[in-house]
Design a protein that fits this description.
about 550 residues, alpha/beta, 8-stranded mixed β-sheet, 5-stranded parallel β-sheet, globular, disordered N terminus, binds flavin-adenine dinucleotide, binds 3-acetylpyridine adenine dinucleotide
Length: about 550
């Protein structure tokens, strides 16, 4: 509730988060619009995802020339990428460089968490509270809090009694962890677990991987970028930036074909092999357009990947356990690997299928599954995130009538265009639920949202409006539209974090808009051009 005792620092805008989104949002609002802005960040530095996820093997899986900002030609020209897919330290260095180059750090308070935000309905301003006892009053509140920033370690019974070391990948120690001579358990085989396995296997005396759902992991195909290649990329940046918008996810591919079913089995096999060798997202988003739309088309590529897995794993029983079934290829976030399957060919690496033998509890010295006890010294939880809504709900945001955002979205998130929700005026979400977000190259999705929000605020000021707020009808229509588009694809068929399926009790709602980035941008631009159609101006 609103504390009327005063002592509030008034600012035009509070931006929560200092990842790709928060940094650019502060730059737009402060340096282009001239607003007073305070950034609040729980971490001790900038970087967001790339600050927190320091586990061995953490790496980006979108090409470096795409996974970066596009708003500054000078920035593009002065930064050299060293690898096709940059590792976590390089992305973190890049974001620190951006923060320093644009003098952004001075606008942030680090090591501080927003723990409450209450709408003051008398003035349509936000009262923001931090865990350090600070109170800020702001007209605009921007949640740049990240879709994959609220970590989630399942509540395994006995966890607190474990005597060894435990690690969560999304809050990894800043000093390197040495697993030499240790017996290590790793729970989770999503993108994070798949990246970690070869690295931990290289050090540990024994590694036991606890897998619930096998991934359709494909080769990353990383390589260094030499000076000549970087010079060509720099020269090509304007063309690259234009081409990005020709692809639904903003990632550029050569030779995307319409239908897997329109080609012979031989040609399909040749084409899949070519895409497999090309690495990255090529097989997933850059092969046939219908593999995420048509079950028969999907089965052709799923079968191809299953054969690849079997061919790389020596022990037939382990190969069988690693082979994904029962959900379509690509319906979960594509997992990319470098030596993942070969790691299981080493005698000290064991795979436990926890669907067949579930984890019953964690004991003081290991993990007990339905069939036996696995003694271990360390446990790594690579168990993912309470995606999209986790970080938002943890802020305890209360809108009109004191209503919590989590209550407004009890049946699933409902922000109009993913940007703003009814009853919460002047609260904006960057790459929020129901926007293309994680199925769009994130830095570009972030720039598009920050630009839209900054333009909207500038327009409100120019037209003497105090506030903007989604209309309930527009919001309901958008929820329906996002669902209809998703239901026309195979993506809702997997138990993924896109649907909240990884968090017990979370409503099963597909939280990503799959209409394509250019189409989505056009919708957002049309709404703005039509005097913010679907939003109430106050
Ligand atoms: P984040 O980077 O998550 O930053 C949000 C920040 O908000 C965090 O620093 C957090 O501490 C802060 N915060 C949250 N709540 C509060 C609060 N209440 N108070 C104060 N601060 C708060 N995407 C891709 O497109 N390609 C990739 O290859 C890719 N790789 C990834 C790898 C990993 C391991 C993970 C976890 C995600 C990856 N992603 C990738 C998604 C990635 O999250 C985005 O690309 C991007 O970094 C998101 O930036 P952001 O600023 O929106 O959020
Ligand atoms: O998390 P996840 P993540 N018992 O949710 C398992 C991005 N990213 O951190 O699949 C046993 O994908 C869970 O099993 P299941 C990317 O967008 C990118 O790996 O739910 N197991 C799963 O295997 C990615 O999608 C990169 O059955 C349990 C794992 O834990 C997103 O971040 C690298 C369990 C969690 O997988 C999240 O990835 C890293 C339980 N109770 C991350 N609960 C790149 O390569 C969960 N699991 C760029």
């Amino acid at each position: 509730m609103i504390d009327a005792s005063g002592d509030e620092s008034p600012v035009d805008a509070v931006v929560v988060g200092a990842g790709f989104a928060g940094l650019y949002m502060v730059h737009r609002l402060r340096d282009h619009l001239g607003l007073s802005v305070r950034g609040i960040e729980a971490a001790e530095g900038v970087g967001g995802t790339w600050y927190w996820n320091r586990y061995p093997g953490a790496r980006c899986d979108i090409e470096s020339q795409l996974y970066c900002y596009s708003f500054s030609r000078e920035l593009e020209q002065e930064w050299d990428w060293s690898e096709r897919f940059p590792a976590q330290p390089e992305v973190l260095r890049y974001l620190n460089h951006v923060a320093e180059r644009f003098d952004l750090k001075r606008s942030f308070t680090f090591g501080t968490r927003v723990v409450g935000a209450d709408l003051d309905e008398t003035s349509d301003t936000w009262l923001v509270r931090t865990d350090r006892g600070e109170r800020l009053r702001a007209r605009f509140l921007v949640a740049a809090t990240g879709n994959l920033s609220a970590g989630r370690v399942p509540d395994f019974p006995g966890r607190e009694n474990f005597r060894g070391h435990t690690y969560f990948t999304g809050d990894w120690p800043h000093q390197p962890v040495d697993f030499s001579g240790r017996r290590v358990a790793l729970i989770g085989t999503g993108s994070t677990g798949v990246q970690l396995v070869p690295h931990v296997a290289r050090q540990a005396a024994a590694l036991t991987v606890f897998q619930r759902t096998p991934a359709y992991a494909c080769p990353l195909g990383n390589r260094p970028i030499d000076a000549g290649t970087m010079a060509r990329i720099k020269a090509d940046y304007p063309a690259i930036r234009q081409r990005e918008w020709d692809f639904p996810g903003g990632v550029i591919f050569d030779d995307v074909r319409p239908s897997a079913l329109a080609e012979s089995a031989e040609e399909r096999q040749r084409f899949y092999e070519q895409k497999w060798q090309a690495g990255g997202m090529n097989l997933w988003l850059g092969s046939y357009e219908d593999i995420l739309l048509d079950e028969r088309a999907n089965e052709t590529v799923a079968g191809f990947v299953r054969d690849k897995i079997r061919s790389r794993v020596d022990d037939p029983d382990t190969a069988e356990k690693l082979t994904p079934r029962g959900y379509p290829f690509g319906a979960k976030r594509q997992t990319l690997e470098d030596g993942y399957y070969e790691a299981f060919n080493q005698p000290h690496v064991e795979l436990v299928d926890v669907k067949a033998t579930p984890i019953e509890c964690i004991t003081p010295d290991g993990i007990r599954t339905a069939d036996r006890h696995h003694p271990v010294d360390d446990i790594i939880f690579a168990t993912g995130f309470d995606a999209f809504t986790g970080a938002l709900y943890r802020m305890n945001i209360r809108g009109r009538g004191g209503r919590l955002l989590s209550d407004h979205w009890a049946a699933g998130p409902r922000p109009y265009l993913g940007l703003n929700t009814s009853g919460f005026p002047n609260l904006f979400f960057i790459t929020g639920p129901l926007s293309p977000s994680v199925l769009f190259n994130m830095p570009r999705a972030i720039e598009q949202h920050c630009d839209w929000i900054a333009d909207c605020i500038a327009w409100l000021q120019a037209h003497d409006y105090q506030a903007i707020e989604a209309e309930p009808d527009a919001e309901a229509d958008w929820v329906d539209h996002v669902r209809e588009v998703a239901d026309a694809t195979l993506l809702p068929q997997a138990d993924s974090w896109y649907l909240g399926a990884n968090v017990p009790g979370k409503p099963r709602v597909f939280m990503v808009y799959l209409g394509g980035c250019a189409n989505y941008k056009r919708i957002c631009d049309d709404v703005a051009a039509d005097h913010y159609r679907g939003l109430r101006l106050i």
